Amino acid sequence: MQRLTHLQRLEAESIHIMREVMAEAQNPVMLYSVGKDSAVMLHLAKKAFYPSPPPFPLMHVDTTWKFQDMYALRDKAARDAGMELIVYQNPEAKERGINPFDHGPLHTDMWKTEGLKQALTKYGFDAAFGGARRDEEKSRAKERIFSFRTASHGWDPKNQRPELWNLYNAKKAKGESIRVFPLSNWTELDIWQYIMAENIEIVPLYMAAKRPTVERDGLLIMVDDDRFPLKPGEEPEMRSIRFRTLGCYPLTGAVESTASTLSEVVQEMLLTTTSERQGRAIDRDGGDASMEKKKQEGYF
Amino acid sequence: MADIQTQDPVYKTDALIAEDIDAYLDIHQNKGLLRFITCGSVDDGKSTLIGRLLYDSKMIFEDQLAALEADSKRVGTQGQDIDFALLVDGLAAEREQGITIDVAYRFFATEKRKFIVADTPGHEQYTRNMVTGASTADLAVILIDARKGVLSQTRRHSFLAHLIGIRHIVLAVNKMDLVGYDQATFDEIVSDYSNFAESIGIKDFTAIPISGFKGDNIAIAPSPETPWYSGPSLIEHLETVDLGADEEQARPFRMPVQWVNRPNLDFRGFSGLISDGEIAPGDTVRIVPSGKTSTVKSIVTMDGDKDEAVAGQSVTLTLADEVDCSRGDVIAAADAPPQAADQFETTIVWMSDENLIPGRGYWLKLATQTISATVAEPKYEIDVNSLEHLAAKSLSLNSIGVAEVTTDKPIVFECYKDSKQLGGFILVDKITNATVAAGMIHFSLRRAQNVHWQPTTITRDDHSAMKNQKPALLWFTGLSGSGKSTIANVVEKKLARMNRHTFLLDGDNVRHGLNKDLGFTEADRIENIRRVGEVAKLMTDAGLIVITAFISPFRAEREMVRNMLPENEFIEVHIDTPLELAEARDVKGLYKKARSGELKNFTGIDSPYEEPEKPEIRIDTTAMTPEEAADLIIARIIP
Known about the structure:
The complex is a heterodimer. By secondary structure, chain A is α/β, with parallel strands linked by helices.
């Protein structure tokens, strides 16, 4: 008799989901954001198809404004997994020089939401894995594991397919696609525990170190390159910081911390009890229902 | 949190977070997992209870709590009190309308277990949502308002939980604070419920008197208010209830194959989630339905080969022999394999706005098998409130019925009560791709088990070789009066002249004999087409070129016939005549009758014609004569 732990059961479920997609979709892709959830998702994909490499490409919908450490790990992780890496940057956003300083919400909309839609259409992917978890945000708690999207990538929360047992309905018409969330039932603590148990490589920014920072709108922002517009006479201050979540560096708030090991990070997380996305400026646009609105527009 | 009096459950590991995080993580590394569903309405205090479970296990973060307090004052229904419904209700549309329409999943953990709570709020679509949430649950918490006792909704929730096979039922008698923590009230409710539970086959349940609002018997029992209660607190019970992993692992081994892993010519692995039993290298297994046996060579994982694997794990097996095995097959214990059958008695929960159409082909997905299937007219429908059996011709949204299901080919299955993985299925609409129903197999019908396919010495290939032709089914479809019969006749005449062996099945003629028992209801029209399809299939087996002329207005039925035949033998011929033209011709005077209302359900008038999307041949009758049309069709089938 062998009793499975919660992590073993979560792992088995995620692997089952990935294999179902592989068996039923024509052209799947794994969206890879380089964050810790993406790292876990990629690790599970390696396990699901071992000894084959995961039989689909990794795709990063890039904004050109991610942390440098993220770009470094992204390229290494794809290489280590033996997977093709597709980096997509919205050409219009690139041409117009869309950036987080001058364009506000348009930055996320054009680089991420539009960029993702363009990329999925361009490559004709009919199933895309994403690392979202149900415990992250209220509207996600109700989203299916296989989440159906119209040909224009829209999500209709009132018209979701019932999902019973572990039977996933992957049938769809031409042009329609499915977003698949294999980590739906994982919590933030599960993710951290799994990273520790499996020795998964994550971006060092999750751990505290001295980094150059400035304060903007109550958020502690790391100055990651020379594109950051400093005020006249302003000097970035070296602070011991880490990140709870990673995105575009000018939009991602750091927390002051000395937690430099994984277990110290988890300790801090359990003691501070502030929910995860709070450090990310993007959720605040549009108030309460902002994530749900973004999802209906096609954001992951 | 001034309004919620906390009775803090102090887990002994909490202090460890600050003192010794590694020790804390060690303890939490090896937790089990329990999935449960909460049944009841907001009136029963369900949201408050879930909110309390999250709060007591420290799963509400400070910023969420602050947002909750603000929301409660702005849109809450509890005055200045915290409205926990806001915490567990997700979507903006629902919040505005004050209704919840779906299944939401919540997470919390104690030192012993991680919990996933399926919450199915609201009254609308309750059956559909509860069945969905319950399908993955190990346990159901059935909430009762102590002031109201056992209500019809309590019975409904219990019936559904039992129907979906949840073995652990908790009767949470809530709002005990509002009845003065009166033991007699509690005992009476338990006794009432006990009688009912027994009547529907629930053998065992655990009753706990609680107050979600005050926290009594949630984390610690007995609460000082209920000294008369000697059982566990709700959380203690959730932490310790035996989930029957032993039983699951003691069952014979089964693994539905999801995917064949073939990185190179030297490796061939079969990947899947083990649904029952356990497996080790050297075990003899049988591939079902083929029946071939082999031995497990290795259990391959990225962390190295394993000595054993058990139900609930996703693995990749390699076998000692080169046996045929692919997605949809089940690898099973050689001495106790599951059966394959193609006809079943099932319970079906209908989940779509569009009613069940008996006889229509749906996709049936069971484990990793997807196959075309039809549902017969239900034997009866079950009223979820009174549990009475009602006569039914169909099933509509949220209705539950018992009906026979027939699959196109035998599938590997087990009775649902023995294996949820191999006994539960979904039905998918072939046109909209929506999941329209969930079903549970009771047993296979004898017919499928005892009528074996008799292999014949003269095969269909022999038949067609003798006739020196490739068999085919030319399926003419089109409106009444479009010219189907006329063109079909010309085609057959021409083929006969070319010494081809043919047979023309005409719609009107078949109704004089084979199908004279059928009328023109939707179900009868489907059965008409099914029989014609089967007859045409036998004729192609005999090597004939079969020509049929039926209106066959529905795509699903034409697809059903297409799926009966080997690939490329079904040739759909759309006789495309505009309705105005067909009506103007009105050879049989039927359109006139239909327009006057004398004839009901007439295709094109008050019943739809679904045009073929990709017919093999399309004949535009406004552009060619029947002779020209026939030549064109023959040119396509005779190379």
